[in-house]
Amino acid sequence: MSQTPGDGKHRAQWASSLGFILAAAGSAVGLGNIWKFPGKAYNGGGASFIIIYIIIVAVIGTTAMLAEFVIGRNTQKNAVGAFRQLNKKFSWVGGLGVFTGFLIFGYYSQVGGWVIYYIVSYIVCPGRIFADPKLFFYEMLGQNGFPWLGAIICPLIFMGLVIFVITKGVEVGIEKINKILMPSLFVLLIILTIRSVTLPGAAEGLHYLLTPDFSKLNFNTVLMALGQAFFSLSLGMGIMVTYGSYLKKEENLVKNVGLICTLDTIVALMAGFMIIPAVFATGVEPGMGGGFAFVSLAGVFEKMPGGPIFGCMFYLLLFFAALTSAISIMEGTVAYVTEEKKMSRKKATAIIGVLTFIIGIFYTLSQLYASIKGIWFDFANGVTFPAFGDFLEFLTDRLLTPLGSLTFCIFVGWVWTTKKGIAEVERDGTYTFKLKKIWSVLVKFIAPLAILTILIGGMVFGLALS
Questions:
Q1: Longest CA–CA separation in the chain, Å
Q2: Long-range contacts formed by 388-392: CB under 8 A, 24+ apart
Q3: Separation CA 108–CA 5 (nearest Å)
């Protein structure tokens, strides 16, 4: 049996290729696929956005993911240890990824708790949700008092599940749970998609998703597709470096990257076909982000025959996606602490859990404040600052994640060199990397340029990339 990091004996490894692929795909398939992609596809022109998105994933996303995998498998270390081994001056690059994942897990676990609350609510009292979806959401956040359910109890349950899996280790915990959750996620997604496309009036939504209208494409649309691709694939957080470090040397990295990116894209596309036809059929205006998932969709399920049942199934789907991603995000930080600080896995998960839980509470409280006062904190003399939750999402989604991807690509392309990266992929002639020259150009020039575009577009022009 594989050992877990920090045991002082042997480093953890995936027991099978399937386990690794499902775990990595589970990391990529998260909340962004289920609620962000449909909204962006709708606002970006439907089929036109989808075509651009697929091209970006195939060209840029696979390039960046392979860069992370070669670093991880070559060193067999966590993100910080990997960069330190290859070049000590760049160990901060791995630290940036770990720090980003640490922050993201703080609010991710809160949203995961909200999903649990909605699953129970759709089973017990769907009528309360349908009566006033916005009020129901705000009450969960604690509009009439402290958000015990939204900030403490439900997120604590979600985090407890994540910690339980992480403490079991890579093979027994992460790999095993993904072999259960990922197939379950696909089953639910297929059922909900079939229900959506067979609704009366769904044909208009299908036409929107299948008929390109390139007149709607603009710079903002391309930037949204770029941002969605990188964030959806869990790039820039060191997660794929850590997961790659658990790979056996005989694994075919190029094949695995292709399978993971394909699975992630299929889930995103199916989410689009699950949501957009239903939106057209029910006449509910879609949005993007949490407000869409927890408020707008209630209108869809209310008008749908068997709405409470399908509402419960949707949030169960969302729960599976959130759990698999949260596990991978936390694992990146846990691997760093257990290996670099020589701490036991249980102690590391406990400390990280407490710290991120505190961050998460402030995230939910800031959402509560925003729901009552608006999205800005007002101070004396007209000075305004963004609410903590909005700032945290901006910092991680628009700045730290793309910055992490940028530094990873630059490191592989120019510091460690693509020659060594290609050698790791080919494993001394075991595999033939037919696209190695193209990948070298992509990781050196095209991917960094694309990521810089995300950073500049998101920060300078204020475009919606998260």
A1: 67
A2: 388/362, 388/363, 389/107, 389/362, 389/363, 389/364, 390/366, 392/103, 392/106, 392/107, 392/359, 392/363
A3: 24
The pTM score is 0.89
Backbone angles phi and psi of 284, in degrees to 5 = -85, 130
Give Cα separations from 54 to 41, 47, 57, 124, 259 (angstroms).
Answer: 12, 11, 5, 39, 14
Tokens of 339: 């290996």
Chain centroid to CA 298: 23
Token representation of residue 285: 């205006």
* Residue closest to 200 by CA, chosen among 308, 309, 280, 312: 280
Contact present, 60 and 226 (Cβ < 8 Å): yes
Helix locations, 172-252, DSSP H? 176-197, 203-210, 219-232, 239-245
> How does DSSP assign 381-400, residue by residue?
GG-EEE-HHHHHHIIIIIII
Q: Which residues pair with 376 in a beta bridge?
A: 386
Averaged in consecutive runs of 10 residues, what is the pLDDT profile of the chain (466 residues)?
Answer: 42 86 88 83 90 94 96 95 95 95 92 94 93 87 76 93 93 91 93 93 93 83 83 89 92 94 94 91 69 79 90 93 94 95 94 94 78 46 54 81 93 94 89 93 94 79 49
Report which residue type is found at 310. F
**Structure tokens given for 149:** 């359910």
